Amino acid sequence: MGTQILMPALSPTMTEGKLARWLKKEGDEVRAGDVIAEIETDKATMEVEAVDEGRITRILVPEGTEGVAVNTPIAELNGGGAAAQPQAPGQPGPVTRQPAPPAAASPAVGQVAQQAEDHAAIAARGQAREEGAAKAGEAAAAPEKDWGPTRPITVREALRDAMAAEMRADDRVFLMGEEVAQYQGAYKVSQGLLDEFGPKRVIDTPITEHGFTGMAVGAAFTGLRPIVEFMTFNFSMQAIDQIINSAAKTLYMSGGQLGCPIVFRGPNGAAARVAAQHSQCFASWYAHVPGLKVVAPWSSADAKGLLRAAIRDPNPVIVLENEILYGHTFECPTAEDFVLPLGKAKVERPGKDVTIVAYSIAVTWAMQAAEELAGQGIEAEVINLRSLRPLDAEAIAASVRKTNRLVTVEEGWPYANIGTEVAMRVIELAFDWLDAPPVRVCGKDVPMPYAANLEKLALPSVAEIVDAAKRVTYR
Amino acid sequence: MTERRPLSLHVPEPPVRPGGKPDFSRLAIPQAGAVRRPPVDVAAHDIHDLGYSIIRVLNRQGEAVGPWDPKLDPEVLKAGLRAMMKTRAFDARMMMAQRQGKTSFYMQCTGEEAIACAFQMELGKGDMNFPTYRQQGLLIAQDWPLTDLMCQIFSNEKDRLRGRQLPVLYSAREAGFFSVSGNLGTQYVQAVGWAMASAISGDTRIAAGWIGEGSTAESDFHSALVFASVYRPPVVLNVVNNQWAISSPQTVAGGESATFAARAHGYGIPSLRADGNDYLAVRAVAAWAVERARRNLGPTLIEWVTYRAGPHSSSDDPSRYRPKEESDAWPLGDPIERLKKHLIVLGTWSEERHTQMQAEIEEEVLLAQREAERHGTLHDGPRPSTATMFEDVFKEMPRHLREQRQELGI
């Protein structure tokens, strides 16, 4: 029986890629292991190897096609099959965050496309509600400045554009880190920067976070404005003495003589299938420290606006990005001077029954939960913190004064997390308005396991947020 | 007084990038057999020259020559050849399994098999390796069950790490294989600590630390050398210089200014630099360092000169940063081909027997994979038990974790 060859996923976070080149043509015989095609993702170019033996009877996706979703049938082997079997032995399976349904190829493709679109779509739906609410005079927080026209870009592009814009504007700004120059970033965030700014401003460092962080802190003391990329924030633990005991405190210790205008950025938190040492959230670690500012962007606009503000800020700023969000597309203002203030939260979706406070990828889950809750008659207001320190406690309190209930959502561990701080600030500012004890939805109190089934359990889920919202509203 | 002129920064020259012609002319390679073999109790400062040379045994004709020839029995050499071929076949199958979605991630050691496979044979029971992710040969050379490694890679119900760790970051305590860390360098200073503890408690066991040339930039490497220098514990400090740290050439780790073996000179630690693609040289040099440790003569640093013939990992595409032909141009050749040639020159091996052994090994690896897949792969079949997720966070499970488990209903 014939089978279909499916677009493989080459990493757990890949959702689509370009079919760059066919190395075999219709009628060719292939053996297991033969390279049959080359595909490109935003991370790398890869060869696709045949898994089964047989003759390629039909090529379904011509070379040069962009945006081919994982699991799309790209060719037929031995006459093709009535139903492709993504899970059959010898077929590349979908490797996405959610275990894909064991369905035929086309629904699986739909599923992946659906996931890719989720973040942008729910952002837009939340925004539409907000505009409606604003007209009705219901919105709690002051509306954001209108930056005019927008266009859809990925979070990855937004971060790159922010760095490029600030590097053009200020020749003191430079980027350093492992693999940022020649390789364009381990997650391809610094794409094109080496070409534009050259090797003296986009610097590949030796493998030592402790070393290059200390060096960048030293450079910042001279008045340069380094952007330090950590391949992931897990590796910043090596450099934490430099970040906390030097970058954060030197302005204070030197009696105001020597400041440290520096940005530390990179992916934070869990990606997918990278286990205990590579999947943890450092939000509450850094937010604890006086002298540091900490932001955690969710959308492309957050990423661009907050990173630009962070680079301009005269203090050390920690920018906690999220690997899974890098490839997601959101509308982002095109204005040349677009920037967001540090320390301001954003109401992503207005509501009157419960306040859900989240940051980074947890905003996606909160927005999904809010949609589900709306179907059950509960109108949740979703606040995207954007900035963890300074924290926009007033915006949160204003919302709670309206809804009287608070749920916090984050992927970090429960003990002394950001939700703890948010809840305490609400108790201080709006205790009399609370009608239920606040509830924190967060990661389980265990190191992150690797296996997909365990990882899923260890992370907060939309269902847990829905449950929490019902609990505080006594439904 | 010196005139004050504007300063400028030295950035290492980029090596040959894709499209260029591979060039290894900077690597000075002495004739096989040319480097002297000092006694194991030599003083560090008397062998500084060995840190700038390359110890080699197998010459271009496939003969074993010079004072470092370990003069091993042909049957021992055949076992070594088998271990290297098995490691390569294992890597090829697992890379394929990654492409098939049976695991999310894999790392090969193609081209570097001789180092781990030969080194392990000089260690004894109870000795402890602190490896990186590219020393699977330490396990395969001691006939550790391939199915066990595959179950970890597939993160299935038989995974001895219970679905908790990234593929290829194995732990096998009874095989003298310490848990591989995903964060670079940490194991190097731990190896020194383990060896110091062995000496403090009057034990006979020794440790081996492993690091790539790129990670020698890490503070852990330098701290390890400080403690090894001060307390002289029974440890062999291996630096595998495979020329590339993902896309960063060894010059970015400081290989332009001095060899990695020479890092030991400032610490007064004896160091050797050896041909890592020469199975006989690895055996001989490892034996020399292990004997020093056993005789309580202290640490040895060894730089193994080799070439990472494959990608850094399944997520890497080296054709973007180095010429595709560079691997073929590597002047120290392929470790399997070189040992095979030597055995043929000795008259105890042939192309036919080699082909037959290759087929046997591929069959063995395939059977192991079938067995492992019966217990599940990343997306199919049985998975690690969810009920164990809250175990081992602490030695005894605290109440709040019990409650979290109950809330999840598992």
Characterise this structure.
- The complex is a heterodimer of chains A (475) and B (410).
- Chain A is an alpha/beta fold and 475 residues long.
- Helix content of chain A is 33%, strand content 21%.
- Chain A contains 15 helices and 22 strands.
- In chain A, the strands form 5 sheets. Chain A has a 7-stranded mixed beta sheet with strand order 11-10-12-13-15-14-20, sandwiched between helices. In chain A, strands 17-19-18-21-22 form a 5-stranded mixed beta sheet, sandwiched between helices.
- The longest helix of chain A has 31 residues, at 105-135.
- With 410 residues, chain B is α/β, with parallel strands linked by helices.
- Helices cover 34% and strands 8% of the residues of chain B.
- Chain B has helices spanning 74-99, 113-120, 137-140, 146-154, 186-200, 219-231, 279-294, 326-329, 335-346, 351-374, 399-408; strands at residues 128-130, 207-212, 235-241, 244-245, 248-249, 271-275, 300-305.
- Chain B has a 5-stranded parallel beta sheet with strand order 1-2-3-7-6, sandwiched between helices. Chain B has a two-stranded antiparallel sheet with strand order 4-5.
- The chains are: A alpha/beta (475), B alpha/beta (410).
- The interface between A and B is large, with 61 and 60 residues.
